[in-house]
């Protein structure tokens, strides 16, 4: 049986400093918080950084932090953990407990500042991204892509008219040949909401492409298979298995939340017609906001009900969403599928005046998104893969016909959570241990 070493022994054997060594004397603030003393640090470039206690907390390098924030930000081994990197050893907070405050500021180094709190705890907080996440490439990845991974609109590229970047095809062999290439491909996806690959070998299935090629996962489970093949069926229980046109839509609106990352792998496509096309809802909403912000507000606040209850399937999926969701002013998610709307339930839930306004807003929005000049249209061939942001980029299909023997249209689909994809972009490689550098403070 493997023996477990006590924590004290692990700490002694590590290179991390024990807590008393992290604190080398410091600056005190009086009870009124009016006496301000400044501790400074000059880096190798000669830039001077400072920290001092304020009335509400501390100021580090010109950034004001509250007392409670600093205590939650402590990165000492006792509070943050060398191996877990999860907050632990936190004091209780709330009205029943006195507020814990910073009493002294100790040593400043390039990435950290030592602090002593009123409960007697001595630790340190990070002053830089590197101090917060550790050394190596993860520092630059967090700096460059963390806002994109958090779906900040400022880092996304909306496309009202599809440009060459939107239409770009990436060679599959190149994408999977290195981790950095895979990240570049996925960053493109996060930015534009769509990414396309060609040159996928005939013997690869979608599961191989995702798990072995892109090294991503897990897949998102729903009422279909994790990896689902869409092959023509007469009288299908889902319109996607038919041959008719599918208007612009976002998938699985009857789930809450809706799946985020959609994979489409065209295994074979020899039918007549069946062109695919896509449109950027964030660009359409931005245009509508400029023209009719009152209607946009209705689509943000009044939810529509969606359902999927095909006879004999044993499936009853029903929920409701507003068409537009924002987070701190950023467009976050769009939900829309005309053939999954439960208008009868909507009429039972909402008064007549609200429904009038909603249908006026929705009709206006569909006119904007259905503007063909904003579509990216492409007939996809076997060996091509498309990944779309199902919270942003609509997809659609034109009608197709099988006019000769042997013609087929075989499409394989799968879903994934956004965080699983973002993890592939931001994280170090599995087995690559990136520890914080508090031992160098």
CA-based shape: globular
Biggest beta-sheet profile: 6 strands, mixed
Going across the biggest sheet, name each strand in turn.
Answer: 9-10-21-13-24-11
- Oligomeric description of these chains: single chain
Gyration radius from CA atoms, angstroms: 27 Å
Which range does the strand content fall in? 25-35%
Structure classification:
alpha+beta
Number of strands: 24
- End-to-end Cα distance: 37 Å
Share in helix: 25-40%
Overall mean pLDDT stands at: 85
Number of helices: 15
Q: Could you walk me through the main structural features you see in this protein, from its secondary elements to its overall organization?
A:
Helices cover 28% and strands 26% of the residues. It is an alpha+beta fold. The strands form seven sheets. The chain has a six-stranded mixed beta sheet. A four-stranded antiparallel beta sheet has the order 1-6-7-8. Strands 2-3-4-5 form a four-stranded antiparallel beta sheet. Helix 6 runs antiparallel to helix 15 (418-426). The longest helix has 18 residues, at 352-369. The protein is globular, with a radius of gyration of 27 Å. Residues 1-36 have low confidence and may be disordered.
How would you concisely characterize the structure shown here?
It is built from 15 helices and 24 strands. It is an alpha+beta fold and about 450 residues long.
